[in-house]
Write the structure tokens for this entry.
Amino acid sequence: MWITFSVFAAISFGLRGILYHWTSQKPLNRNALLCGTFAMGALVNLVISLAISSTWSLACLIGIQMGLFSFGGNASMFKGFAVGKASLVAVLTSLPSVVVVIVAFFLWNERLHLMQLIAFLIIVGGVLLVRYSNDLSFKDLKGAQWGILATLLFACNDLSGKWSTMMGAELYPSMFMLFTTGAICFGLWWLKDRRTEATAAKAQIAAASAMPVVHANAGMAAPTKVNRWSDRRTFLIGMAVGTTNTLGMMLIITAFGLGKAGLVSAVVALNVLIVLLYTRFIVKDKFTRTEVAGIVLSFLGILLMRLFGA
């Protein structure tokens, strides 16, 4: 069953990735979007927790740790894309499962038998090939530090999820803690953005008022203004994205409770294939031979995991 939950989690996160890709093309505040995404998760899990009378134990506070790791991982990844080489950051952020396998072995003595290890390596290799870009050059490592940091933080988030199941924390209260923490962190960053924008707008108005008046017929072209989405609209779109994120987190935590952390993390990493199929059939991007090889390897790994994952 852990494979089933992991595959459905990968599909949910893949849909989230598609929505992230779509919103990345829009003029909006990303922190407002992510605040809405996490706020939706907090709302859904709170309602479910109250409806089924979940037990709020101290173990549920592990969700706060998960929220901090998730926030840090997303922030580091976006920073890496902003200042570094996108292909390098993409490859590095596809490696959390490797870290999870290593740490889970030392923390909880989670061992993989030979066929599980082979399937794990095939899946990771397939994901790396899908993420690999022909313009990737390890001579240009700008942004690598942010990609590595994001990988470590995402791995810590997965390990925390596994830990919460081992401690007997109930799912929905833990998820409420996770999403509330993330919403608060991105919300504070969003407020910081608003203050920065307000300060910049005041400075621009002051600078404009100090300049001499130029008549409309002076032949100067008016600057083009980008019609950015309102923060309210962005937040609501983020809440819609949050439905896929919430479902994915519920499924992956359930999978962690049933299977080995490293194997679950590796299978869920296949969400990149969902995004790839979207870019092929909707965005009309063409597959490269490297991507096709990665897809074939990934599905082969899933098949082996299904046959020998017990």
Remarks:
- The chain has a mean pLDDT of 85.
- The two ends are 10 Å apart (CA to CA).
